[in-house]
Amino acid sequence: MPVIELEDVQAAARRLRGVADPTPVLTSRTLDGAVGASVHVKAECFQRGGAFKFRGAYNKISSLPQEELAHGVLAYSSGNHAQAVAIAARLLGASATIVMPADAPEAKVDATRGYGAEIVTYDRWTESREEIGARLAAERGSVLVRPYDDPLVMAGQGTTALELLEDVPELDVLVVPVSGGGLIAGCATAAKALLPGIRVVGVEPEAGDDTRRSLAAGERVRIDVPRTIADGLQASEPGELTFEVNRLRVDEIVTVGDSEIVDAMAFLFDRMKLVTEPSGAIGVAALLAGRLDVRSERVGVVLSGGNVGVARFTELLGAR
């Protein structure tokens, strides 16, 4: 039995109606010309919290019974899931504790704290956020809201594709960033159910290709924590549940280098007036770098987030 189906994504859409922001689908003739295709960019940088993560976090937390909400929620995240859980918890009257790496981007830490969450830091290179999160949740009696390996979280993220296909009903290819696999699992579930012939392509940083390796091996493969500018895509192993979905519904995984990600950030800023974080721009990076053949096709690409501080943004683009 598959972990999630279209009906789960549609149920998430009903919970999110009037709470999550419907995000725009943007086009650029310059992008179309560079890629040789008709490209439709789903700009999740305009979502609450600045990234798609709010969809899954709210779908999960709003499904909890009141007696569990009273004990608060706990999550681990480098930033976007952290902000999403903090916002959703505040909207639903629950406290939130977030386990964040000590080197998480300052803009993401400040925003998470600003949404009212308590932050507990750890060393991403020597400590396990999963172990810390499980221990703290048990000590406090809090509900652990996983960043991707949860059916309700995956279903919430899938509303991104559901919305995209409402705006652009006919797509040949869907391009989605991949970290732990929750976004692409939800999006692939919705897209394949509505358009069985659609090709779903995931994009990972070259240094963090755990999902590509895992799909090739037919089982989950663990790698070292990736050293990449895409801080939101530093998973070292696909989720157990997300992998079960993605091995059935994802057609291909491609990778791009950090310099290609920065080039895409610059393109999106110059040509489409979009501020994106490295993780958010990776799908457009794959298109601009020619990692997949989409000539004459209709392509949807998820721009997953825009949470980057001005200092980091100018540092990355200034070093080109």
Describe this structure in words.
The protein is an alpha/beta fold and 320 residues long. 46% of the residues lie in helices and 15% in strands. The chain contains 14 helices and 10 strands. The chain has helices spanning 6-16, 29-35, 53-61, 66-69, 80-91, 106-114, 129-140, 151-167, 182-194, 210-217, 240-249, 258-272, 278-288, 310-318; strands at 25-26, 38-43, 73-76, 96-101, 118-122, 143-144, 173-177, 199-205, 252-256, 298-303. The strands form 2 sheets. Strands 1-2-10-7-8-9 form a 6-stranded mixed beta sheet, sandwiched between helices. A 4-stranded parallel beta sheet has the order 5-4-3-6, with helices on both faces. Strand 7, helix 9 (182-194) and strand 8 (199-205) form a beta-alpha-beta unit. Helix 1 (6-16) crosses helix 8 (151-167) and helix 5 packs parallel to helix 6 (106-114). The longest helix is centred in the middle third of the chain and has 17 residues, at 151-167. The model has no long low-confidence stretch (mean pLDDT 95).
Question: Which descriptors apply to this entry?
Answer:
alpha/beta, 15% strand, 14 helices, six-stranded mixed beta sheet, 320 residues, single chain, four-stranded parallel beta sheet
